[in-house]
């Protein structure tokens, strides 16, 4: 084979490889699922231009939501979102001067009255829980007195789905029966007390008394004499038959 033809073939091969790589890069940076609009990143997480880590990001005058759960990234543009006043409220929630957005969908909530309360959200009148994908659950109609109640040093930030209003105590979306909201308090991640009762994961433990009851770690309590562990069926506790001092040595 003449040397000139050989060199020509090498050049054609190199050019084809370069063109293929270039087209691959262009393809990766074009999000065909959102109308062929350019993506902002390949290997990093979406970020707003102010540097805040979020699922929402701004490109030009448009706002996008990074739709998760796909092998190929799916970016949804938020139609009508005002990029100048757009702000992320908390995770999957955002708002601008006119609307509140849940993920990439525009809601009917008023941005001036809307708020996120840990895993709940409120329109200023009622409090709701987003039971995705089943739908929205109304938790309370007393937003003015609705408060998150955490677990002191055992609380996990932004994951507290335990709350109360003027009439009820809530464990996620369930009303805790027999609980007194005025005196109810969590001892750790699973145990709580009020003025008359002890509760495990939101269920009344009739056999135990709140007097002298306090936490030992994240999942156990003691009355000062013995140690109790959670049981996820009636009677909702088990006596470990050990003293608090001996149990602490095992922690």
TrEMBL record:
The chain crosses the membrane at residues 12-30. Keywords: Membrane, Transmembrane, Transmembrane helix. It comes from the Bacteria. It holds the Pfam family DKNYY. This is DKNYY family protein. It comes from Loktanella salsilacus.
């Amino acid at each position: 084979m003449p040397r000139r033809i050989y060199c020509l073939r090498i050049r054609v091969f190199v050019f084809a490889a370069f063109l293929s790589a270039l087209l691959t890069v262009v393809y990766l940076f074009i999000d065909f699922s959102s109308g062929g609009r350019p993506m902002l990143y390949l290997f990093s997480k979406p970020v707003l231009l102010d540097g805040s880590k979020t699922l929402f990001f701004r490109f030009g005058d448009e706002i996008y939501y990074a739709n998760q759960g796909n092998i190929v990234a799916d970016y949804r543009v938020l139609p009508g979102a005002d990029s100048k006043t757009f702000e992320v409220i908390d995770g999957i929630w955002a708002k601008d001067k006119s609307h509140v957005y849940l993920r990439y969908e525009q809601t009917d909530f008023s941005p001036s009255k809307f708020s996120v309360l840990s895993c709940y959200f409120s329109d200023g009148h009622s409090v709701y829980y987003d039971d995705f994908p089943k739908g929205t659950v109304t938790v309370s109609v007393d937003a003015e007195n609705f408060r998150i109640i955490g677990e002191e040093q055992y609380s996990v930030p932004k994951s507290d789905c335990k709350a109360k209003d003027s009439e009820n105590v809530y464990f996620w979306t369930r009303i805790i029966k027999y609980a007194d909201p005025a005196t109810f308090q969590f001892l750790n991640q699973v145990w709580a007390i009020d003025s008359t009762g002890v509760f495990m994961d939101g269920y009344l433990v009739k056999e135990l008394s709140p007097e002298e009851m306090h936490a030992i770690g994240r999942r156990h309590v003691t009355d000062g004499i013995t140690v109790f562990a959670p049981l996820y069926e009636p009677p909702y506790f088990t006596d470990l038959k050990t003293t608090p001092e001996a149990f602490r040595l095992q922690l």
